[in-house]
Write a structure and sequence with these properties.
Elements: H1 2-10, H2 15-27, H3 35-51, H4 55-71, H5 73-79, H6 82-91, H7 124-136, H8 142-159, H9 164-176, H10 185-200, H11 209-232, H12 237-248, H13 261-264, H14 272-280, H15 287-299, H16 309-322, H17 326-342, H18 350-363, H19 369-388, H20 393-410, H21 415-424, H22 433-443, H23 462-465, E1 469-470, H24 477-487, H25 490-498, H26 507-520, E2 525-526, H27 529-535, H28 548-571, H29 580-598, H30 607-612, E3 614-622, E4 628-635, E5 637-640, H31 645-649, H32 653-661, E6 668-669, E7 685-688, E8 719-720, H33 725-728, H34 738-746, E9 749-751, E10 757-759, E11 764-766, E12 768-776, E13 780-785, E14 788-791, E15 796-799, E16 809-814, E17 857-873, E18 876-883, E19 902-903, H35 921-924, E20 928-932, E21 935-939, H36 941-950, E22 954-963, H37 969-975, H38 988-1018
Parallel strand pairs: 1-2, 5-7, 5-13, 16-19
Antiparallel strand pairs: 3-4, 3-12, 6-8, 9-12, 10-11, 13-22, 14-15, 16-17, 17-18, 17-22, 18-20, 20-21
Helix pairs in contact: 2-4, 3-4, 4-5, 6-8, 7-9, 8-10, 9-11, 10-11, 10-12, 12-15, 14-16, 15-17, 16-18, 17-18, 17-19, 18-20, 19-20, 19-21, 20-22, 24-28, 26-27, 28-29
Organism: Notechis scutatus (mainland tiger snake)
Protein name: Ubiquitin carboxyl-terminal hydrolase 38
Keywords: Hydrolase
Length: about 1050
C-alpha cells in the first residue's frame, strides 16, 4: 500500500484522480495490517509531512498518518518514540536533507544518533509533526516520557536563539501542551530569561505588509507564552524584567530587536512605581546604561499594537527627574526627540508617540533647543494629517495644537520660527493662559517629587506656583519685596523685557536681566547679587535694615534719570577724542537744555514716566482777594498719612476750628514735607498729610519699645496727640480704608493762624484755602502708607499698627482740565513745594467759603500688589509682598458694577473701603501669590485683607494699583500673535545666559541628589526638629527665606 501511495503522489495524474485514490488509502486504514506494514505507512506519511515538495503531498501525509495512527495506536506508539522525537529535534526534518531521514524508510526502532547543535536551523514543520504526534498519543502512557523530553528540549531550543518563525511555532506547541514547559522554579526562570534573549534577536528584512503582519503575529505568539508563564509562576516576572533591562541597557554594538516592546504590555501597571523606583535608585546602574536603555525604550514606540509602551517610557522619564538625573534626560531628549516626532506620521503608533513627545517637550523647560529641533517639521505634519481624513485626525490635531501653544508660550521670542506654525493651526482651538501655565508647571522636571529623603528643607518654589523667589542676600528683603511687586506689574515687566539694551551696562539692563531670570529660570529662587549692588542707594549700608519705600523711590528715580541721560547722549554725536571732563560738561549742558525745553515743549517720556508718573496740581485761593495760584508737579507715588479720628466722624467745621485755635488741645502736624532732590531722598514723590503715633481704633495709644540704635530722620513727621476724652470720643470704630486715606489726602485745607499764606496780590499773610487735584493719572498708582512717625522724645520712628482695609478696586478722581495759569510741567525732579516752611501748622479742615469744585473723572484701578511690613518699628522687622498678574485689559474688573466699585468722591466722601462680602466671588478667587524671599506660595485676596487682623504686627505698607481699560503698546504688539505668552521675545544673549544657567542648575541638582544618595546609603540623615535653621522663624529675613511673618517677635532681629 505504501508503494502505491508513494508512486501516486509523485505521478502526473490529475489532482482529482489523486485525491480519489488517497481517499481509498485512508479508508483502508480500518483494515487489519501487520506491524511492518504500519511502520512503513508511518514512515512514508512522515516523509511526506516533513519533506513534501508541495502543499498537496504534505496534506496527504498528514491525512494518512492521522488515519493509520487512530486505527493502529499501538503500532504508532512503537513508531513515535522518544528517540525519534529527539532525532527530529536535533537534526531531522526538511532542513536536514534526505540523508537525515533515511531511518524513516525502514522499521528499525533504533535510528542513528543525529549531529548536535542544529536546533536554530530546525524547520518549523518538525514542530508541526511533533505536535501532531503528541495529539495522537495524548491518551497513551508513553506521552509522559515525551513531555519530559520536550521540557529539556524546549529550554535547549530557546537557548540557541531560534528565529522568529521557529520560536513562534515552539511557543504554539508549548501553549497547546503546557506539560512540555520546563518545570521547577529554576528551569522555568531560565526558560523565561532565554526566551527574552531570543526575542531580542528577532529580525525581519522584509518591508512588505504581509510579511510584516506575519512577523508581528509570530512575536505576539512568543510574548503571549511569556505572559502565561508569568501568571502561572509570578516569581519569574521580576528576573525576566531584569534580563530585559540588561539587554536594552547593554552598551555593546549589537542592537536588540524592537520586538521586545511586545513584552511591555504584559507587565502589570501596578508595578510601575516599584520597578521604576528601584531602577532609578540602583547605584549599580551606570548613567551610560540608563541612557542606552531609555533610548531603546523610545525606539519601541515604532512597534505596532504594543500597549503601555508610552506609559513606561514616561514613567522612567519621571523617575529619572525625581532623582534629578538631568544629564540623562537632556542627552536622551536631544537625541531622540526627532525620532519620536517622526512616529507621528504613522497613525498606528501616533497616540503613544504623541504622549511621549508631549512629556519630553513640556519637561524640557530650561532651553528651547529640543523644541526647535522639531519646529521645522510641524507644518508639514499638520498639513498631511488634515488631508488624510482619518476619524482620529481631528483629536490628534487638537492635542498637537495645544502642545505647540504651550511650547511657544514658554519660549516666546522666535516669531520667524513660530509664524508658520501659528498659521497652520489657526483654525484649531487655543488653550487659555491659565491652562498653559498649569500644564507647564506640572510637567517640569523640577516638579517631580523625589523618592529620596532630603536632608535639607526644600521650599515650595517654581514647581508649584510657576514663580521664582529671590534669595535674601543679608537683610535684603526690602529689595526682594519691591522687585517682586514690580515684576508682577505685567505691563512694566513686558516693557522692560522688550527693550533692546545689548551692549549697555545700565541699571535698566540689569533689571531686564533680573526679570528675564525670574520669568525663565528653573531655579526655585534666584540670587540678585549684581542687581543689588547696582541698585543699592549710596547711603544704604550693606546688610543693614532699610526702608522698602525709600528704596523703591530711589530705584524708579535712578532708572528714569539714567534713561534720560542715555537719550541725551544718543541724541548728540560726541567726538571720540573728547576727554572725560569735556564729556561730563557736554552731558550737563545737554541735560540743562533738555530741562529748559521741557518747560515749553513736551519731550518723549521715559519708561518710568510712562508707567508710574502722575501729575498733581496744587491750587491756593486767598480768602481775602479771591486770587488763586496754581502749581503742577509730577509724582511717582503718593504718601498717605493716617487721618485724625475726627475725619471719620465728619465733624462740623466750627468744632474743628475751635479745637484748632487751642494749640495745646489739638492734633498738630508738620506740613507736607518738601520733596527737593536731596542726597538721601530721591525726588518725584508727593508726601502730603498727617502722621500719627501708634493710635488704634479703640482710642488707646500703643507704645513701641525704644531702640538705642535708632536712626535719625532729617525731615520728621511730628504728631503730638493728647489721649484725652475729646480725642477718644472721635475715634471711629470703622476700620479706615485706603479710600479714606486718599480722601483725606485730597481734602481741602485751610491755611490760617501760624500757617497763613503770603498772597502776592495782597502783599501780606492771609487766610487761604489749599486744594490738591490729580490732573494726570499714572498707569501704575503707587501708594505708601505713612506708618512710621518720628518720636522726638524717644528719638525713634514709631510704627502705626492700625489696620487699613485694602479695596480690590478703587476709582481715582482725576481732573483733566489744565490750568491756563502758570504751570510747571515736564520736569521729573520738580519738587512739591508749599509756601510754608515746615515750622507752621497745616490744619486740614472742610472748606468754609470756597467755591464748590466740579466732580472730576473717576479712573478705575485694580489692586496689583501689596508690600507688607512685619514688625513694630522701623528698626526691626521683615518685608514680604502679595501680588498677582493684572493685564492692561478691563477683564480684571470682573463683574463689578458701579455700586460695587470703591469710588473716591471729591472733595469729600463718606465711602469706606469695601470688605470681602462686597467683592465678586470670582474676583476674590483670582490667583494671588505670596512672595517671601525664597519662598513663593499660592494665597488669596482674603489672606491679603486679613493679614493685620490675624497678625497685628504685619501691616500693608506699599500698594500698587493698575489702571484699567488702558490700551498700551504692549497689548497692541501681543495682539499680533508674535508674543505668544504676552511677554516679548528675549534677546539672544539673554536667552543664552538663561539656558546656560538652567543647565548649570540641573547639574547642581543632579550632583546634590547623587551626594545625598551616597550619604543615605552610608548613614541615615540627621534631621533638626524645626527645619534647617532653628533660629529663623517664617516671618524672618534669614537666609532660608520667610513665611508669613505672623506672630513671631522680631524686635531683636535686624532683618531688613
Amino acid at each position: 500500500m505504501e508503494k502505491i501511495l508513494e508512486g501516486l503522489v509523485s505521478s502526473s495524474y490529475p489532482l482529482s484522480v489523486k485525491r480519489m485514490i488517497v481517499k481509498r488509502v485512508v479508508e483502508s486504514a480500518e483494515s487489519p495490517l501487520s506491524g511492518p506494514q504500519c511502520q512503513a505507512m508511518f514512515a512514508l506519511s512522515s516523509r511526506l509531512i516533513l519533506q513534501g515538495p508541495d502543499q498537496f503531498q504534505r496534506q496527504v501525509g498528514r491525512q494518512v498518518l492521522e488515519a493509520y495512527a487512530r486505527h493502529h495506536r499501538d503500532d504508532f506508539e512503537a513508531f513515535f518514540t522518544r528517540d525519534l522525537v529527539l532525532a527530529l529535534l536535533h537534526g531531522g526534518g526538511g532542513g536536514g536533507g534526505p540523508a537525515s531521514l533515511l531511518f524513516l524508510t525502514a522499521p528499525s526502532p533504533s535510528p542513528p544518533p543525529p549531529p548536535p547543535g542544529l536546533g536554530s536551523n530546525l524547520d518549523p514543520s518538525v514542530l508541526d509533526y511533533v505536535q501532531t504526534g503528541l495529539r495522537l498519543l495524548i491518551s497513551c502512557p508513553a506521552v509522559l516520557e515525551l513531555f519530559a523530553l520536550l521540557q529539556r528540549e524546549a529550554l535547549r531550543l530557546v537557548s540557541e536563539r531560534p528565529p522568529a518563525p521557529l520560536c513562534a511555532r515552539l511557543c504554539q506547541l508549548l501553549s497547546d501542551f503546557p506539560q512540555c514547559l520546563p518545570r521547577g522554579r529554576k528551569l522555568a526562570l531560565a526558560f523565561c530569561q532565554q526566551l527574552v534573549r531570543s526575542i531580542a534577536h528577532f529580525q525581519t528584512q522584509s518591508t512588505r505588509e504581509a510579511a510584516l503582519r506575519l512577523y508581528v503575529s509570530q512575536v505576539t505568539q512568543v510574548s503571549n507564552l511569556l505572559r502565561g508563564i508569568w501568571k502561572a509562576e509570578p516569581d519569574t516576572l521580576l528576573p525576566s524584567l531584569q534580563e530585559l533591562f540588561a539587554i536594552i541597557s547593554s552598551t555593546d554594538t549589537s542592537e536588540p530587536s524592537v520586538a521586545l516592546a511586545s513584552l511591555v504590555q504584559h507587565i502589570p501597571l501596578q508595578m510601575i512605581t516599584v520597578l521604576i523606583g528601584s531602577l532609578t535608585t540602583d547605584p549599580n546602574v551606570k548613567d551610560a546604561s540608563m541612557t542606552q536603555a531609555l533610548c531603546r525604550m523610545i525606539d519601541w514606540l515604532s512597534w505596532p499594537l504594543a500597549q503601555h509602551v508610552e506609559t513606561w517610557v514616561i514613567a522612567l522619564l519621571k523617575g529619572l527627574a525625581a532623582v534629578q538625573k538631568f544629564t540623562i534626560l537632556i542627552d536622551v531628549t536631544l537625541l531622540k526627540i526627532e525620532l519620536v516626532f517622526n512616529r507621528l506620521w504613522f497613525p498606528l503608533v501616533r497616540p503613544g508617540a504623541l504622549a511621549v513627545l508631549s512629556h519630553m517637550l513640556l519637561s524640557f523647560q530650561h532651553s528651547p533647543e529640543a523644541f526647535h529641533l522639531i519646529v521645522p517639521h510641524v507644518v508639514k505634519l499638520v498639513i498631511s494629517v488634515k488631508s488624510n481624513g482619518l476619524p482620529t485626525s481631528t483629536a490628534f490635531l487638537e492635542q498637537l495644537s495645544e502642545l505647540m501653544h504651550c511650547m511657544m508660550y514658554h519660549y516666546s521670542g522666535f516669531p520667524e520660527l513660530y509664524e508658520p506654525i501659528l498659521e497652520a493651526i489657526k483654525e484649531l482651538s487655543k488653550p487659555n493662559e491659565e491652562k498653559i501655565k498649569i500644564i507647564l508647571n506640572q510637567s517640569a522636571w523640577t516638579s517631580q517629587s523625589s523618592s529620596l529623603q532630603s536632608c535639607l528643607s526644600r521650599f515650595s518654589g517654581k514647581s508649584e506656583t510657576g514663580k521664582t523667589g529671590l534669595i535674601n542676600l543679608g537683610n535684603t528683603c526690602y529689595m526682594n519685596s519691591v522687585i517682586q511687586a514690580l515684576f508682577m506689574a505685567t505691563d512694566f515687566r513686558r516693557h522692560v523685557l522688550s527693550l533692546n539694551l545689548n551692549g549697555c551696562n545700565s541699571l535698566m539692563r540689569k533689571l531686564q536681566h533680573l526679570f528675564a531670570f525670574l520669568a525663565h529660570t528653573q531655579r526655585d529662587a534666584y540670587a540678585p547679587r549684581l542687581f543689588f549692588e547696582a541698585s543699592r542707594p549710596p547711603w544704604f549700608t550693606s546688610r543693614s535694615q532699610q526702608d522698602c519705600s525709600e528704596y523703591l523711590r530711589f530705584l524708579l528715580d535712578r532708572l528714569h534719570e539714567e534713561e534720560r541721560t542715555l537719550k541725551v547722549l544718543s541724541s548728540s554725536k560726541l567726538p571720540e577724542e573728547m576727554n572725560e571732563g569735556s564729556l561730563v560738561q557736554e552731558v550737563a549742558n545737554k541735560s540743562q537744555m533738555l530741562i529748559k525745553q521741557s518747560c515749553s515743549v513736551k519731550e518723549e517720556r521715559t519708561l518710568i514716566e510712562k508707567m508710574f508718573r502722575g501729575k498733581l496740581q496744587t491750587s491756593i485761593c486767598c480768602l481775602n482777594c479771591k486770587s488763586t495760584s496754581h502749581k503742577e508737579e509730577a509724582f511717582t507715588d503718593l504718601s498717605l498719612a493716617f487721618c485724625p479720628p475726627v475725619f471719620f466722624k465728619n465733624v462740623s467745621p466750627p468744632t474743628v476750628e475751635h479745637s484748632s485755635d487751642e494749640k495745646d488741645d489739638s492734633m498738630e502736624q508738620v506740613s507736607a514735607r518738601a520733596l527737593s532732590p536731596v542726597t538721601e531722598m530721591p525726588s518725584g514723590v508727593v508726601t502730603v498729610g498727617d502722621s500719627c503715633e501708634m493710635v488704634t481704633n479703640d482710642g488707646t495709644l500703643k507704645d513701641a519699645p525704644s531702640d538705642s540704635n535708632s536712626e535719625t530722620v532729617s525731615d520728621p513727621f511730628i504728631c503730638k496727640t493728647e489721649a484725652g476724652d475729646n480725642l477718644k470720643k472721635h475715634i471711629s470704630e470703622v476700620t479706615p480704608s485706603v479710600t479714606d486715606l486718599l480722601n483725606y489726602f485730597l481734602a481741602p485745607e485751610v491755611l490760617k493762624g501760624d500757617n497763613k499764606y503770603f498772597c502776592e496780590k495782597c502783599a501780606s499773610l492771609q487766610n487761604a484755602e489749599k486744594i490738591m487735584q490729580i490732573v494726570e493719572e499714572p498707569e501704575y498708582l503707587i501708594l505708601t502708607l505713612l506708618r512710621f512717625s518720628y518720636d522726638p522724645k524717644c528719638h525713634i520712628r514709631r510704627k502705626i499698627l492700625d489696620n487699613v482695609s485694602l479695596p480690590l478696586v478703587l476709582e481715582l478722581p482725576v481732573n483733566r482740565t489744565l490750568s491756563s495759569l502758570s504751570t510747571l510741567s515736564g520736569i521729573w525732579s520738580m519738587s512739591v513745594e508749599f509756601s510754608d516752611t515746615g515750622e507752621n501748622l497745616a490744619k486740614k479742615l472742610k472748606p468754609s467759603g470756597a467755591e464748590e469744585v466740579s466732580c472730576p473723572q473717576l479712573i478705575p484701578y485694580v489692586l496689583s500688589s501689596v508690600v507688607v511690613h512685619s514688625g513694630i518699628s522701623s528698626e526691626s522687622g521683615h518685608y514680604y509682598s502679595y501680588a498677582r498678574n493684572v493685564a492692561n485689559s478691563g477683564s480684571s474688573l470682573g463683574s463689578f458694577d458701579q455700586s460695587q466699585t470703591l469710588a473716591l468722591a471729591y472733595p469729600q466722601s463718606n465711602l469706606t473701603a469695601a470688605t470681602e462680602k462686597d467683592l465678586d466671588e470670582n474676583e476674590v478667587s483670582k490667583e494671588w501669590f505670596l512672595f517671601n524671599d525664597s519662598r513663593v506660595t499660592f494665597t488669596s485676596f482674603q489672606s491679603v485683607q486679613k493679614i493685620t487682623s490675624r497678625f497685628p504686627k504685619d501691616t500693608a505698607y506699599v500698594l500698587v494699583y493698575k489702571k484699567q481699560n488702558s490700551a498700551g503698546t504692549i497689548s497692541a504688539k501681543s495682539a499680533s500673535g508674535l508674543w505668544i505668552n504676552g511677554d516679548p521675545p528675549l534677546q539672544k544673549e539673554l536667552m543664552d545666559a538663561i539656558t546656560k544657567d538652567n543647565k548649570l542648575y540641573l547639574q547642581e541638582q543632579e550632583l546634590s541628589a547623587r551626594t545625598q544618595a551616597l550619604e543615605a546609603s552610608a548613614a541615615s540623615c540627621s534631621f533638626r526638629p524645626n527645619g534647617f535653621d532653628d533660629n529663623d522663624p517664617p516671618g524672618s529675613c534669614g537666609p532660608t527665606g520667610g513665611g508669613g511673618g505672623g506672630g513671631f517677635s522680631t524686635v531683636g532681629r535686624l532683618v531688613f
